[in-house]
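User: quick one, fold this
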Amino acid sequence: MYRGIYTAIATLFDADGVVDREANAKLIDNLIEAGTDGALFLGSTGEFFNMNLEEKKEHFSFIADHAKGRFTLFAGTGGMDVRETVELTQHVQECGFDAAVVMCPYYFNLPETHIREYFATVASSVDMDILLYNFPARNNVTYSPEMIRSLVADHKNIVGIKDSGSTIEDMRRYISEVADVVGNFSVFSGFDEFLVPNLLSGGAGTIGALPNFEPELFVGLRKAVEAGDLDAVRAGQKRIAKLMRLYSVTNPFVAAVKYAINQKVVSTHPAMRFSSVTITEDEMARVEKIIA
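Assistant:
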């Protein structure tokens, strides 16, 4: 069962949109040295939508070569075409990743029968662990606990979920109506500020973007929760509440996260790939104030 602090890690590119392997390696190394449990590569923060299939394969191969065996590797493999999702999931299994994190096709509000078939197809194509990715703001759906229990009953390699719902209601239901019922099912929060309620409710931890540049905060907060150190929990949660403001500095938030990485971890180009989403001087100042 997967538990702990996982980073929805950014993918660092240079100003020409080329993957900066040296910078990415330093970012990974910093997370490992800080004691995080693992990372999700090519999730939303990792800009999976800005890379084609072959680029994703190449990046996953690089990650496995650099980090396999050093901490837990999650690969974001979901997308619009189930054939590409299967191909990519099979690739990360061959690379030695620990689990694939799979979102359903987005854009349309798909009926749950279609979503179930999509996940069943992916899970049947590999022997590796699968975590579902629930992100209602992007998928236009919320997976029901009943569907998840049905999938788990038929596919033992479906072992968890990353829930990025904007409230704790879905997370709470996945814990009480799935994990507590089927066992061996990890419920992660996709929102950093839900780490404490997740852990106290019996969840597995968090997969969030803020550990990209402040991993020690989250590692320490998890330890404080486990130790029952209320003062440390209060201080850590207060710090996270301040850092959460970073998500609203740029739209999407990825450029702001990359600038924070640039300021605190490794020199990187603070912009989304092939996009006009950059960061202005005013926004840089706001990020600097937030992370100070």
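User: anything notable?
Assistant: The first strand starts at residue 4 and ends at 8.
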